[in-house]
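Example 3.2
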Amino acid sequence: MSSLIHLVCDYAQGDLAWAEIIAALSCKLHDDTRIHSTSVHPFDTISTGFIVAQLALAGSKLRPSNMLVFANTAPRRDKKEARPNNEGEGLLFATLKNGVQVLAVNSGNSLSFVRNDIQELWSTNVEEQGSQFRSRDYFPLAVSKASRSDFSFINHKLSIEEVVPEQPKEVVGYVDSFGNIKTTMRAGDAKLETFTPGTRLKITIGGHVSTATVATGSFNIMEGDLAFSPGSSGHDKRYWEIFKRGGSASDEFAHPPAGSPIKIQPA
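Structure, written as tokens:
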């Protein structure tokens, strides 16, 4: 029985959709199961994937052993033609090497950041059409079954390499509420190995260019300066982030969306 379900959706916090989904889930889950919701911007599968990995790959001291992650960002962009009967991307079920289970809509990069950590990947028999609001009408039953280790909803075993795209490189991965830009560059990347603390860099995102200092942590720079340093995400291989002490790095770069390419070169 799952004691915690992390629900990641592209609805704004407080939106009516959240209220309806939580109510539908609560009808089917055990009373002791807690639900925590996290919002991303509409159709943003890159932030979805980043969050899924940060939650699902946490060490055993940072998550309950019986945790389920449900990622529900479904932009319906897998087909450009008109979609009959509100058809959408299918729902996938993954078991990770650390034992965490993930239900995710088969959309964009929703599973990309856990791609190398997936033990098994399955299609499901959850309806792909018939409702504009599948996350309220169809998905809660599958979530409930998964939380009870009832796998009657899974269908065929899939090839991870064929279904899940690799995570994007050198782009904005996620922007937190403080305006810190978490990149998809992480410890071990060859380019990062050439940067030493104190080095000044020119960072370009979109049409905006700013200078930042390579730092060992976000707070060992002067107030108001930009830092490029290992951040708090990524666990044992931390993602680097662009941080403005006392301000917002996102403001500095005109609020770049997830997936925006990042160019870094010596200043």
